[in-house]
Design a protein that fits this description.
about 180 residues; alpha+beta; TATA-Binding Protein; six-stranded antiparallel sheet; 5 helices; signal; Lipoprotein
Length: about 180
């Protein structure tokens, strides 16, 4: 069975939390249905993180796993998407992925819904996906001796894209790692 390449894995991960780019209204209870507990002040949401801080969080999450590349998407998505790809000597274990999740929690990220083999976390309007994968057969020679790839992606508030142009998923340029 042929597995998608490293770049394809990054693009798939980037497409997973695409709903994070859409605005949704939270349902509100009618005044009669509110309980005293819901009338309590709600905590303020975390301040919006700039993309550079999100990239720093993603790099911090994968620290020590191997060489990495920060992939910059093309305009107009560049300020609401972040991609970091690590090459690892082995495919990361679940324990190592949990370690990366814990590092993001230390930076204020909250666990989101579980996905098979990966994790989703949120921070403000950013949604991050962490997916460890084996290197595909087609990329194996290019990235040897590495056997795993750890894709960390984040999507933020892309509302400004809907005003100016239809939102499209533009894949980042293919990573080239030092051989």
């Amino acid at each position: 069975m042929r597995r998608p390449g490293v770049l394809a894995a990054v693009c798939v991960v980037a497409a997973l939390p695409v709903t994070a780019c859409t605005a949704t209204a939270a349902p509100t209870a009618s005044p009669a249905a509110r309980s005293p507990k819901t009338d309590a002040p709600r905590p303020t949401p975390p301040a919006a993180k700039p993309q550079e801080e999100v990239l720093g969080d993603l790099v911090f999450a994968g620290h020590g796993f191997g060489p990495y590349k920060v992939l910059k998407p093309a305009a107009p998505e560049r300020d609401c998407k972040a991609f970091v790809v690590y090459l690892t000597r082995k495919v990361l274990t679940m324990q190592q992925r949990h370690q990366a999740e814990e590092r993001l929690r230390q930076r204020g990220w909250r666990p989101g819904k579980a996905v098979p083999g990966g994790a989703i976390l949120t921070s403000g309007e950013w949604t991050a996906g962490l997916i460890p994968e084996p290197v595909s057969d087609e990329d194996r020679e290019q990235v040897a001796p590495h056997k795993g790839v750890f894709a960390l992606t984040a999507l933020g508030n892309c509302r400004h894209l809907r005003r100016s142009a239809p939102a499209t998923v533009t894949p980042p340029t293919a990573p080239s790692f030092p051989g």
